[in-house]
């Protein structure tokens, strides 16, 4: 996928405002940078949530459209 411009994205965060990160102990992200941590960013214009690599900030996948509302109901989505 592509590197991101964060201008129109909201980042999933805990109530404290810290970014809600995910860790995959069994694999590295598909971007190839070697990181195995990622977070979610929501593009309001596209109504799409992306999994974004914490290491290189590239999109690594899109959340299925039917799961968008479920994910948006978890945590706080902040402009970071």
What does this structure look like?
This protein has 1 helix and 6 strands. It has one domain. It is mostly beta strands and 80 residues long. The longest helix is centred in the C-terminal third of the chain and has 5 residues, at 68-72. A hairpin with a 5-residue loop joins β4 (48-53) and β5.
* Class inferred from helices and paired strands: mainly beta
Spatial separation of the terminal alpha carbons: 21 Å
* Total beta strands: 6
Largest sheet: 6 strands, antiparallel
Sum up the overall morphology in one term. globular
Summed up:
With 80 residues, this protein is mainly beta. Helix content is 6%, strand content 35%. The longest helix is centred in the C-terminal third of the chain and has 5 residues, at 68-72.
Q: Which SSEs are present, and which pair or pack?
A:
Elements: E1 9-13, E2 21-23, E3 37-43, E4 48-53, E5 59-62, H1 68-72, E6 76-78
Antiparallel strand pairs: 1-3, 1-6, 2-3, 3-4, 4-5
Sum up the structure in keywords.
80 residues, mainly beta, 6-stranded antiparallel β-sheet, 6 strands, 6% helix
């Amino acid at each position: 996928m592509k590197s991101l411009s964060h201008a129109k994205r909201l980042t999933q965060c805990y109530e404290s405002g810290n970014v809600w990160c995910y860790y995959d102990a069994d694999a590295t992200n598909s971007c190839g940078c070697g990181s195995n941590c990622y977070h979610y960013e929501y593009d309001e214009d596209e109504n799409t949530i992306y999994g974004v690599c914490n290491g290189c900030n590239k999109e690594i996948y899109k959340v299925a459209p039917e799961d968008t509302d479920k994910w948006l109901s978890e945590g706080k989505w902040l402009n970071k």
